[in-house]
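Hi X.,

You mentioned you wanted examples for the new student's onboarding notes, showing what a folding record looks like when two proteins sit in one file. Here is a clean example. The first protein comes first, with its sequence line followed by its structure tokens.
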Amino acid sequence: MNKNLLDYVELLANEKSVDKELVLMALESAIASAVKKSEFPGEDADIAVKVDPKTGDYQVWRQWLVVPDDQGLQEPDRQILQWEAKEDYSDQGEMNVGDYVRQELKDYSVTGRRFATDARQVILQKLREAERIKNLEEFKNLYKDQKIVHGQIRKNVGGDWIVEIGKVEARLPKSECIPHELLRTNDRIRAYVSKIDPASRQQQVTLSRACNEFLIELLKLEVPEINEGLLEIKNVAREPGQRAKIAVQVKDKRIDPIGTCVGVKGSRVQNVTKELNNERIDIVRWSDQPVEYVVSALAPATVTSVVVHADAGKMDVVVDQENKKGAVGASGQNVKLASKLTGWDINVMTAEEAAEEKEKEIGEIRSKLMQYLEVDEEVAEALIENGIDTLENLAYGPEDELFAMEDFDEDTIRELRSRARTGLITQALEREELLKTADPKLLELPGLEHDLVALLSKKGVKTLDDLADLSTAELVEMTNMEEQDAQKLIVAARAHWDN
């Protein structure tokens, strides 16, 4: 190694603004790579090199990692068993597991144009890696207290945008762009840093403009009361570029959370909207009372009444006919976002539709009571008016409460309770018979309870193929289950078609 190469090392260190030691390490890697190619072709030899930074002289060794005897050699070209190391290389020390056995190499050749070319490539590659690490660390230090960054679009690669932020190139994936937003090369944009991957060989920083966090951070920039702790963002539901709902809780009751976020003449929220390609933003007052929260989330629609089905996580929300369109929104967008924001499945209907729905439910209850109790419509109606809407309520409800019903004497109550218990046994037997007619594979389908299998079997759906052939609308009509659940079941039933 001559002094000229050391001068070149120093030149590169100055040019790339990196430590000279780093360039020397790159040079050592280059020499090791050259020795490995020339002296050990076809082997995965582990070559170690040490360059003297003052003279340019260097030593080269081949080394093997000492591994436990009972482990065996996973990498024969790079490992040696402990017993063998102790026996053959005792002069190098105790040879503990994890130590290296070294064999100095003397006769090798790493000179000539080929070596110079390879060495330059390896050194530049190592320097590029070091430069990426250095730039990434500077980026992380610069933006450690910021989650939104500014950058300039440089190019488009496979639909993803490459954004230059100082010395770092970040990637804005197509999936993280706001739909239908027009971006062009050289545009300056803001985005949320969603991921930093130091191990990546390409863009180590990933950006997003479509995530909820970007919207939250933008609002924080416009509404200082959030950072001051006077307001808290509780939840966000968003369809990027179209509409978003943000639930805000007030910590200081003197503050109007909605007015504070919207700003004078809407200035604060408008600034966020402009950044998000005119995405409409609704500010919602958060509440720990579910009904109040849901009503607020459906704004600007006016709600007349709400029926809560707590066990099913569902609310039937009644609105005037003129308010229904606004409550549901275009393509159901408003009610979907409200459901996502609150965690409740919201069903919007008019008073007429609610009455029809209630009458339908009562009709089904009435028919079941008439069938299994062997009573007429008048008796069934009287039971319903007294809160008896299932056979279980009548068969096993508190006797004193049943005897308190004015429409029936005690003997009649006892007779009806006996019939209700018989009816439950009859129902169970009918259910078992229906289950026997169903394909066992249908019973094994995840998410399909036996009661639902029995109902489907009664309606002629007895195999996986029968269920797979149904449309979502048909399954919903048969079972009254939620559309999303029906769709999942049908998809699960069709899975075996691909096998």
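Then the second protein repeats the pattern, sequence line and then tokens:
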Amino acid sequence: MDRMKPTSEIVVSPELVERFDIAGPRYTSYPTADRFLPDGWGAHLAHALGSRARTLGHAPLSLYVHLPFCASVCYYCACNKVITKDHGKVSEYLRYLEQEMDLVAPLIGAGHRQVAQLHLGGGSPTFLDDDELTQLMSLLAQRFELLPDMERSIEIDPRTVTPKRLAHLRTLGFNRVSFGVQDFDPRVQKAVHRVQPFEQVQSLVEEVRRLRFDSINLDLIYGLPYQTLESFQKTVDQVLTIQPDRIALYAYAHLPARFKPQRRIDAETLPAVATKVQMMDQAIHAFMAHGYDYIGMDHFALPEDQLAKVKRDGRLQRNFQGYHTHAGADLLGFGVSAISQVGAAYSQSVKTLEAYYAALDAGKFPVERGLTLESDDLLRREVIMSLMCQGRIAFETIEQNYGIDFATYFQDALERLQEFEHEGLLIRTLAGLEVSKAGWFFVRPMAMSFDKYLWLHQDHQRFSKVL
């Protein structure tokens, strides 16, 4: 099917992108995870789960399982990972995941454990072999009610799967897959220590389609070593020949002081900011010219994909896995560094295997930090997520929900947003704020205007920039 259509009318100048290339959060939550407080006993999570069991009846859950293992390191990676070739580590990890589930599930209560969404991330979830993945799914099914029509997604390293493995994932009920591609240029792949030819990924995607998975996502990164406008355009063109249902287009953030593997990347080989702007611009226009809808920030989807449908319907959601489709689902995270969001509470697990195992051996939640949101946090969370997901803020709705006068309460934020208004990126009316088509590419720095913690501490530089 030919999805070509005229190039989008959206025009975003490179100068404008550079101007708003501001360091700040990605707002997978508000307050952001770096604002969580020490919580070695998991009190925020325990209280929130108890409240949920008493008040929410049969509201569905979203589950995330962090599987940190990788056989080799990708130099750009900022994920929490464990590099190993020893599968004995997986068996041990699964035993402790089972212990963590046994701590959490009883607090939810029988009849409150329906699951509408499951995501396996990492690391490389496909580091686990077929038997190990089967065991993991069995552990979940024994403790939660996995709904027949639930969304089951998994991140895939193309180097770790075969058609047979993909078929096994399908028998386990997985219906959405995400392939980590990043770039197809051999020189770039070698520089970041992740070699996977285009033909290999193309063949795997064809097999996924033959197996009738519901959705395929490809991840791309621009700003990697040795990338040029020409080389990255070729990667974009190759992705378009594959025609995935979704595309995630991320900017590489070079932060070697924070992420040790990035120290193996020579900063002199990275493209200049101006070149990154052009890469982003070329990719965006190519995707939209081939029929993709712009979802928000760095995500694109074909119009018939569920993500695009909920965006059109105003039901797009955002959590620690990024944009998603299930409104009102509390998120339970299992495994090292996993984050949970239950009602007005957040919690994050410890980041090392040693600390994770030690906590569970002591019969404790393996939680390191957490936060229960205050009224101002809840208000700002709704405002920021409305902006990030729906691209609009209705003053009257916020005022009725929280008993405030929007213009008075957010006077400083509205003043900060004026520069976006002047550029036609944000439209302000008596009824509210609405992001323009071009403004969608700047929704992250717009959201920062409402972040109390960011402006209170003036600590923008602790985050990556937009590009």
